[in-house]
Amino acid sequence: MPIEKTKWPPVLAVLVLAPWFAEMSWGGYPLTDIPVILLFVGPLYGGAALLIREVARRTGRGWPTIVLLGAAFGVLQAGLVDQSLFNPAYDRYDFQHPVHVDGLDISLYYLLAFVAGHVVASIVAPIAVAECWSRRGSEPWLTRRSRSWVAGVYVLATVINHFGVKDEVGHGFQAEPVQMAAAAAAVAVLVVAALRWRPRPATDVRVPGPLVVAGLGFGAYLLYLPGENAAALVFGVFVLLLAVVVLGTWSRSRRWTADHTVALIAGSVLVGVVVPFWSEPYDDSVGAAQELAADVAAATVCLVIVVSTAYRRRSLRSGASAAPTRRALPRPG
């Protein structure tokens, strides 16, 4: 679908929302660090989200392709770029347990946490919110030239992130060849599955209202990993599979609307209103007062995003319903 110029407002929105949802919506960052983090991580997460969306929209594919490519990005980022999936001493965290797998030296728990987190927060949520605000939500946003710029900036950000993480929090760690090969193979499988995905026939399955869908999105994202142990992993896999089956069934129905999609994503974004207050700060040197200020700011921003997006969706829907009436008026003279 040819476009005359780059749609910069939604593009910039994705570049800001992707790092916000993925990193800062959890709270704990000093407020003065937020601009630097956005500048550092925005081209990385936001660039990936824009390229993934462009592939899906230009090839006429929908959310399943975006989700699968988002999973590929999650494996790429955690397995090959920052290598946190394999690093036994990543900053002050132990990402090797629980449910450690010998040989590859990974934790299945954190494999699920990292990939699912990137799918929802880094890719799907920023795209959905930006599309809601755009009057051309289903169209490509990038020209050939801007695609090249976004791809180049993303590659540069990836290289900087890889070496920056290795020096600052990775303690010089380098994944083994077998680990990198396994991650690369998983990325390749997910990309092929995404590009070979074909739409399924529409159905007339009954779908609950948007508010119910929003509640399910909130609960699933908030509680899909209720602890840090093997039982939590089993529960998380169950929730993930259930979400795939239920949402896959509902979204194929002719009764599923854009309002349901927005409600589902709004539910996941609302997790950022409560999670900051029980999560540990990323920077353990942050004092109690600074942490509270950062948590309140993170929660407030997420709430404002949800409320303003719902209002925007309502305004666009009202405008669309009024447009035929205006065109039907007789021309003067």
From TrEMBL:
Keywords: Membrane, Transmembrane, Transmembrane helix. It comes from the Bacteria. The chain crosses the membrane at residues 34-52, 64-86, 106-129, 149-165, 177-195, 207-224, 230-250, 262-279, 291-311. This is Uncharacterized protein.
